[in-house]
Amino acid sequence: MQLASTRIITDDVDALVAFYEAATGITAERLHPMFAELRTSSGTLAIASSATVPLLGDDAAEACANRSVALDFLVDDVDETCKELQNVAEVFVNAPADMPWGNRSLLVRDPDGNLINFFTPVGESAKARFADDVPRGF
């Protein structure tokens, strides 16, 4: 089994696509006016309109209601990413900080309130875990 993508349901596809394009430097592929994908070598972030929810089933999803999932983006330098995000993100949950598991992490919220973690491995075990990964974003 392979995780193919993570999908965010939103009331404003254009605004969310613009945010993620600016925050990651990745250009979204618009497959439909109600759907876009930002593809990386390790996975895809899909953004879909809340107008698609009835196709999934009654009340299957709700835009702007997530408070339990974070999206993690591996970046080369989280402190530099923080500077770059000053004109992109409106809500900064924290400043870059070292986490006990070996990452330096910055948390922001996207326009729908979803939690986004930009991180850089700084501890030896974290660096080893991500040694073969190619950072995306800034």
Would you write up a description of this structure?
It is a single chain. It contains 4 helices and 9 strands; from the N terminus they run βαβββαβαββββα. With 138 residues, the chain is an alpha+beta fold. Strand 2 (29-32) and strand 3 (35-39) form a beta hairpin.
- Give the assembly state of these chains: single chain
Instruction: Return the CATH class of the largest domain.
Output: Alpha Beta
CATH topology group of the largest domain: 2,3-Dihydroxybiphenyl 1,2-Dioxygenase, domain 1
Which spans of ≥5 residues are poorly predicted at pLDDT below 50? Answer: none
- CATH superfamily of the largest domain, by name, is 2,3-Dihydroxybiphenyl 1,2-Dioxygenase, domain 1
The fraction of residues assigned to DSSP E strands is 25-35%
Number of helices: 4
Major sheet details: 5 strands, mixed
Please give the radius of gyration in angstroms: 15 Å
Give the helices and strands as they follow along the chain: EHEEEHEHEEEEH
The amount of helix comes to 10-25%
Structural class: alpha+beta
List how many beta strands DSSP finds: 9
Can you name the CATH architecture of the largest domain? Roll
* Through-space gap between termini: 30 Å
Q: Give the overall form.
A: globular
Average of per-residue pLDDT values: 92
Count up the domains: 2
Pfam families: Glyoxalase
InterPro entries: Glyas_Bleomycin-R_OHBP_Dase, Glyas_Fos-R_dOase_dom, VOC_core
Protein name: Catechol 2,3-dioxygenase-like lactoylglutathione lyase family enzyme
GO molecular function, one term: dioxygenase activity
